Amino acid sequence: MKSFIVTSEQNGKHVVRNVIDAFPMLKSADINRALKHRDIRVDGKRISADMAVYEGQEIQIWLPDQLFENMGDKHKKTNAKSDADYKIVAETDNLLLVNKRQGLAVHSGANTGDTSLIDILREDTHNRELDLVHRIDMNTGGIIMLAKNKRALDDAIKLFKHNLLIKRYRCLVLGVPSEGENVICEDETIMKEVSHFLEKTSNGNVFIHDTQQAGDLPITSRYHVLHVFKGKGPEGIDVAELEVELVTGRTHQIRAQFAHMGYPIIGDGNYGRNKQNMFFKGLNGGKVSYQQLFATSLILRKIPSDNIHSNLSGRRFEIEPRYDVQI
To answer: Backbone dihedral region of 235: left (phi > 0), alpha (psi from -120 to 50 degrees) or beta?
Structure first.
């Protein structure tokens, strides 16, 4: 048997979450089994279902001692590895927001390597129910939202479906765009809005057209120029840092659309030009490894009260991009 006292930081959280925090070596299956057999006690009383607990209460977990032993080093090793893969941006009882590194796929698939973000996070949180709410490309870094349970996932998907969540990116492009019509965004930022049509091919790449063709999907992005690096590109071309807001969210939308407009993202081997990419050096002096594109902001609009995430109405979550290019 092991026990602990609920701290002020754990106040109001549920038993299972606090047990995982206190004893990260335990598997979620062991904790759920203990609940089922009423082997977890709150202030001496057996419980059979997860519940909120409060500062000062005592939690007892009646499990074999060997489950608590000789596993601390293994957990530390796992976390040491995953610290390089992601950093936690924010966490609620139902959601986890992390900043994913470039080069790590969010889920397993062809050509994604042996591990994925969701696999790592399920292991680190001991929560097999954890699931992706949305996705970003393997070679794009930045914010990913994950849901901790089925109800949280369903309600988080509704945020995207009903346009209650704004996604913004930052990137480095060749040239300085000026196309588009001025629009005032939700937070009163003035951006330029550009629209095109996207054709998705069978191999997953896309083509952008100015006029709609059979099977094309309409796409719209908004952007504004944050900074201009004068003459820092090949042949003295300027480099611009952009903030881009997705109005539609199609496959490779930002990368393909801005390349079509004549402003490819630095480091993008699919939609940019390799000769131009080779001009730039990474921070370590070698070649630029990834496209210089990061999912940097999630902005939540007013969320209906019947949505489990309604307490996040008006919240904004942001990270700084970690560009790997000398300019």
So the answer is: left
Residues in the chain: 327
What pLDDT score was predicted for residue 62?
Answer: 86
Q: Which of 85, 187, 174, 144 is nearest to 319 (CA)?
A: 144
The rounded distance, in Å, linking the Cα atoms of 133 and 144 is 8
* Residue in this structure with the two tokens 């709609």, named with its chain if needed: 212
Q: How far apart are CA 42 and CA 3, in angstroms?
A: 10
pLDDT tens figures, 55-97: 888 898 888 766 776 433 333 333 444 447 999 999 999 999 9
- The angle at the Cα of 13, spanning 142 to 159, to the nearest 5 degrees, equals 45
Between CA 275 and CA 286 the distance in angstroms is 15
Confidence at 145, pLDDT banded by 50, 70, 90: very high
